[in-house]
Design a protein that fits this description.
InterPro entries: HupH_C_sf, HupH_Hydgase_express_prot_C. This protein has 305 residues and is an alpha+beta fold. The protein folds into 2 domains: 110 residues, Ribosomal Protein S8, Chain: A, domain 1, CATH 3.30.1370.140; 114 residues, Ribosomal Protein S8, Chain: A, domain 1 (2-Layer Sandwich). Helix content is 30%, strand content 20%. It is built from 7 helices and 10 strands. Strands 1-5-4-3-2-7-8-9-10-6 form a 10-stranded antiparallel sheet, sandwiched between helices. Helix 2 packs antiparallel against helix 7 and helix 5 packs parallel to helix 6. The termini are far apart.
């Protein structure tokens, strides 16, 4: 377009557009899926929490905060554990925070920051919340019983424990359900593969509902038979991923939502905890360097002898 054409073109003022949010078009379908049905959340951008389009905030402590000897010891223990795992040690490591004073315990998340993965679960009547630090593979865990610790692992050990406590396949399946198209066949396949899963396969088996015709009756059948366990993990980034454990061991509902709040992939994974929420070996290696930089800065400033 030349300069004359540009001068003659009329632009529609933004305030004249009859739309509440210019990033959401009228008629746009809200995010939904087999295990997150339409209507569970009226705001498509709030289904899994507002999608993050920014990097995690860098860890920061108040300028006048003094790291105590007790907190400094825990941070050094965390550093040693992360260095070991980054070097190939496979055993997860915990650092208890329960005996720290309240000020030190409150300082830990300010120091370590919040990363992309978080979750919640219930195990043995205790409700747990866990948050990955800005350094992947480092987790901050709190329990309703007052437990509080840091953990270096691909995922907190309580997630493995909760997943292992679920009922084991094969499970009893209904023989006939009115108005169901593919639900019974899907359940039979899930049942078979969940019963056969022994951890030897390199990858999970994935059933993609995005490409599979599933009626509302099919969806409800899967929810009724497989159920939803009190074990949910969310991974944020440019969009969101929610991993929900069913009540059947090794069966996970995994849903990917883009930054506009629309479901782009709706699946069931049969196998181990889905990779989307796990820290990989390269994450540990990068995190070991990053954590050392953080601790060198704060411990040199506040814990110098």
């Amino acid at each position: 377009m030349n300069e004359t054409e540009t001068q003659g073109a009329e632009l529609i003022p933004l305030q004249d557009l009859d739309r509440g949010n210019p990033m959401i078009w009228e008629g746009e379908e809200p995010a939904q899926g087999v295990f997150v049905a339409p209507g569970e959340d009226s705001d498509p951008l709030a289904l899994l929490g507002s999608p993050s389009v920014t990097l995690p905030v860098a860890p920061r402590l108040p300028s006048d905060f003094e790291i105590s000897a007790a907190l400094g010891a825990r941070l050094r223990a965390l550093d040693e554990a992360l260095q070991s795992v980054a070097g190939g040690e496979r055993n997860a490591a915990r650092v208890s925070l329960e005996t720290l004073d309240p000020a030190d315990r409150e300082a830990v998340p300010l120091l370590l920051g919040n990363g992309e993965v978080s979750g919640s679960l219930t195990l043995d009547a205790i409700a747990y919340q866990f948050q990955e630090a800005v350094t992947p593979g480092v987790w901050m865990v709190t329990g309703s019983d007052g437990s509080n610790w840091l953990e270096v692992a691909a995922v907190p050990g309580i997630v493995d424990s909760a997943a292992s406590s679920l009922r084991q396949a094969p499970i009893a399946l209904p023989q006939h359900v009115p108005e169901v198209m593919n639900g019974l066949a899907v359940l039979a396949e899930v049942n078979e593969h969940a019963a056969q899963w022994d951890g030897a396969a390199p990858h999970n088996r994935i059933l993609n509902f995005t490409l599979m015709p599933m009626s509302p009756q099919d969806q409800q059948l899967l929810i009724d038979v497989l159920g939803r366990a009190e074990l949910v993990l969310e991974s944020g980034g440019f969009g969101n991923c929610r991993v929900m454990a069913t009540t059947v061991r090794h069966v996970w509902a995994v849903q990917y939502v883009n930054a506009m709040g629309n479901t782009i992939l709706d699946t069931l994974e049969i196998g181990r905890i889905p990779d989307a929420v796990l820290a990989a070996q390269e994450d540990f290696e990068d995190s070991a360097k990053r954590l050392r930089q953080i601790l060198d800065t704060y411990l040199d400033q506040h814990c110098a002898q």
